[in-house]
Input
Amino acid sequence: MKHSQLIGVIAVIALMSVCFIPWSFIASKQIIITGISAPGTEFGKPGLMNIIFGSISLLLFLIPNVWAKRINIFIAAMNLAWAIRNYLLVTTCYLGDCPEKRIGIYLLLLVSVTILMMTFLPKIKLPAEKK
Output
């Protein structure tokens, strides 16, 4: 695909932006959870690893070598796994108190899948075959 690297870079930037918008809302405690801020919970900063994986993936999208594209597939898969982990962590009911899912958690999954798909479609110039 001709523009897969550009789409991947844009998706990584979108991933980093999604970590700052609301992921869920816990009504009983009046807490809004984002990827960077989860006050009053034991979640810590769930989106920080997504930002780290995204930063590494961004660099690997920009490097035009085969080894970078191969490593990028692994990093993007780890990012998707972490995004699924965040979805399960942030949206799970605890003692009968179920958080309200917000658009950010769905965007996190969508953007993480997009990043992984773009790693499967790199534009690589292969060396000429010797005869």
Summary: DSSP finds four helices and three strands in the chain. Residues 73 and 119 are 5 Å apart (CA to CA).
